[in-house]
Amino acid sequence: MAVSSSAAFDPNLYLQAQTRWQPIEYAFWAATLLPFLLFPHHLVLASQIAITALFALSLDLILGYAGIVSLGHAAFFGLGAYTAGIMSKYGWGDPFVGLLVGPAVAGLAGYATSFIISRFRHLPLIMITMGLGFLLLEAANSAEWLTGGSDGLQGVRIGPLFGRLRFDLWGYTSYAYSLCVLFLVFLVTRRLINSPFGLALRGIRENPVRMPAIGAPSRSHIRTIYTISAIVAGIAGTVLAQTTSTVSLGVLDFQRSAEVVIILVLGGAGRLYGGLVGAIIFMVARDQFSGIAPQYWYFWIGALLVSVVMLLPNGILGGLARLTSSWRDKAS
Amino acid sequence: MTLGPIFGVLFDGVAYGMLLFLLSVGLSVTLGMMNFVNLAHCAFAMLGGYVTVTLINVYGWPFLATLPLAFLAAAIASVALERTLYRRLYRASELDQVLLTIGLTFMSVGAAAYVFGTIQQPVQTPSYLRGSIGFLGASFGVYRLFLVGVGLSITLLLAFALEYTRFGAQVRAAVDNQRMARGLGINVDLAFAITFALGSGLAGLGGALAIEVVGLDPAFAFAYLVYVLIVVSVGGLGSVGGSFAAAILLGVTDIAGKYYVPQVGAFLIYLMMVVLLMWRPAGLFGRR
Description:
The complex is a heterodimer.
Chain A: H1 11-19, H2 23-31, H3 34-38, H4 43-65, H5 74-89, H6 95-117, H7 122-142, H8 144-147, H9 172-193, H10 196-206, H11 210-213, H12 218-244, H13 254-267, H14 274-292, H15 297-311, H16 315-331
Helix pairs in contact in A: 4-9, 4-12, 4-13, 4-14, 5-6, 5-12, 6-12, 9-12, 10-12, 13-14, 13-16
Chain B: H1 3-34, H2 41-59, H3 63-84, H4 94-116, E1 132-135, E2 138-141, H5 142-164, H6 166-176, H7 178-183, H8 188-214, H9 220-235, H10 240-260, H11 267-279
Antiparallel strand pairs in B: 1-2
Helix pairs in contact in B: 1-5, 1-6, 1-8, 1-9, 1-10, 2-3, 2-8, 2-9, 3-8, 5-6, 6-8, 9-10
């Protein structure tokens, strides 16, 4: 982290400087409204991007900021999606009720597993998160009476927003809804990351042994952020179930867990906009490539991943930041 | 219920476990030596499988003669990648290693789909490896007996080589304490490259032997990665004996679970893995 010399002495000033909104951030969020005007036929894709960005943001909280590598994050995404879907099947189809209960269920599961997560690091941690993800997938596959098994959940009926706006085929409502949710969650996340708690998380990422030594309880911090991250992933899953009116086992898949890690790293882990930029690039690229040759999409995503790791260790945003800072050094 | 089915299930489980052991032992040793998380390990296994399929179906080679070539092809490919890409990331974070090797696996899946298509590859095993032998009221598949034979002889060979040769001693030293081994003048990089080639070669051999049991399509590289990782993490990094025990345990649990409680599916093995890892994070036989 580059800390400007004047702010380095006072953590409060540093945090305040970080909290201030940059012009480029205004531009970014203004640009998210462009699809309504420029690509009115691709609003469904835009809504998928917003949901994926939300999911990547949730992973960024644990992977990017606290250094917890998870290969089973789809578990919470899927819990949110299934909860919202099953509720709507039994008559609780109002989107806002779903948006409360879905993430709450995911958050409870996250809190319960966080006691396991906070005890491990490195390979055992990766394996345990992956194992828990598979456990939930297999459980959902077996519990056909509840989830519909491999046929997917039947009879999902989502009510209109505010009792008026239906989720139409063109995706106007869907994109507006997912974008609003994404923006609100982003605001909360931004506040969280630029708080002393956010700094403590970064400390855990850099040196998990030293943090308890200076009086910051690593394990309880990890439990807190893991629960928050599970809630955000649950929100993403809920929004996906509501905007598409379908829930299948795909929401719990290992592939979804792996993809979101790829998306985050592509954009740049440990940066607020990393997951957002990664989601835009990944989803648009997939939309284009799989149109040409769906089978070989894997090859190109693999090649992209290898080149990001070898050439841009901090993702696309990290590479851009390095470019602009070296450009500034030359200018001054 | 007679003893017959129990013996049959146990035997099938052990044969399946041997296959998993061949697929995973290389990853276990290289992970223990260099702490390099190589998720592309199963891609090398898949390469071995495709070499065998091509040699049999296109060039008409006999099945047994293709096995050494499956081993060689995987070993050579792995060393080429190790020298060009992997070695730059030995000191990088786990996440970078995971991403690089997942990327390579994705590429191998795409390439296999491009060259061979996404269908299951047909392969004809020779007649002397087909059929089954009846014994004590249970029937034992000849191919599975062959698998157990190959698995046991390779295990013994590995155990002997690790325990009694100079190279084995170097490998054990590097697994125990890499820096100390370097300090004593052991060429850890060279030992690692050779181990890496041997391990990937064994995976290639495992991939070739697996076609008859589980089939071969481009999804292989990911489908068996999970099993291999379970074996490695449960057995403990760098432990040949641990991998062997974990592979047999996993094979028997998986087959028995599918036979006696099919509705639970793969639930059982994931539960076993999570519980075992929570109990002993370094694996059953791991020391770290």
